[in-house]
Design goal:
Blueprint (H helix, E strand, L loop, with lengths): L7 H32 L4 E8 L6 E3 L2 E5 L8 E3 L8 E8 L9 E8 L8 E2 L2 E4 L2 E2 L8 E3 L8 E8 L4 E9 L6 E2 L8 E3 L5 E5 L8 E9 L1
Parallel strand pairs: 5-9
Antiparallel strand pairs: 1-3, 1-5, 2-4, 4-16, 5-10, 6-8, 6-11, 7-10, 11-15, 12-14, 12-16, 13-15
Length: about 220
């Protein structure tokens, strides 16, 4: 019996259908990868900074703010002195996709050795909560003035070796008020086994101390 061969037109149509199926498969794979990438939101670090007296002592960005890599948070400016009240400060991590599983970040607040502890309210070591919603750890209270000593604020990273916390801390006046400060734009990095400590000694001298943070993967 004579076999019927497909015509050239049928062969062309068959080729087009096969090519279309291949493109659709590739497009679907790309779309799935893109969608998966879009679903992975970057983690954000947050600062909560509020005055509880004369608001002129707590400048820059007050209230709540959040920022993700590659951006630093906007600066907060600490300029406490003999005016009434001080500044309340807290931190948190927003991680909606649990990309920081296993990570621990903490902040420790205490008076410098021999310093007047009344300038450093709610001293202790606190965890930055790492949550799928935006929240903050306990607030510490900065109320430095002309009393002896200052307040040390230390940031510690543990549990992961691929995450660092960058700390910008600089003076915008008398540099003696900002212990361990660097020039504006430079930063120190806290990572596992290497904390970063800055000292806040704002008082009646000119200017204050500015603090910015950035959380990033390495």
């Amino acid at each position: 019996m004579r076999k019927l061969r497909p015509s050239g037109r049928l062969r062309a149509l068959s080729g087009l259908l096969a090519a279309g199926a291949l493109i659709a498969g590739l497009t679907g794979t790309t779309a799935h990868a893109t969608e998966s990438t879009l679903r992975t939101a970057p983690a954000e670090i947050g600062i909560q900074f509020n005055p509880d007296g004369d608001a002129g002592q707590c400048g820059g960005t007050t209230g709540q703010q959040w920022s993700s890599n590659p951006d630093f948070t906007r600066p907060i400016r600490i300029d406490t002195d003999n005016r009434s009240g001080g500044c309340q400060l807290a931190f948190g991590i927003y991680d909606p996709d649990n990309t920081l599983s296993g990570l621990s970040l903490s902040y420790r607040f205490q008076a410098s050795p021999g310093g007047d502890a009344g300038q450093c309210g709610n001293p202790g070591t606190y965890q930055m909560p790492i949550q799928r919603f935006r929240t903050f750890g306990p607030s510490v209270r900065i109320d430095t003035d002309n009393r002896a000593g200052w307040c040390n604020l230390a940031f510690t990273v543990s549990g992961r070796s691929d995450v660092v916390l960058d700390v910008q801390f600089y003076a915008d006046g008398d540099g003696g008020q900002c212990v361990n400060a660097l020039p504006a734009g430079q930063y120190q990095s806290a990572f596992a086994g290497a904390p970063v400590t800055v000292g806040i000694d704002a008082d009646g001298r000119s200017g204050g101390c500015q603090l910015l943070l950035r959380l990033r993967r390495v």
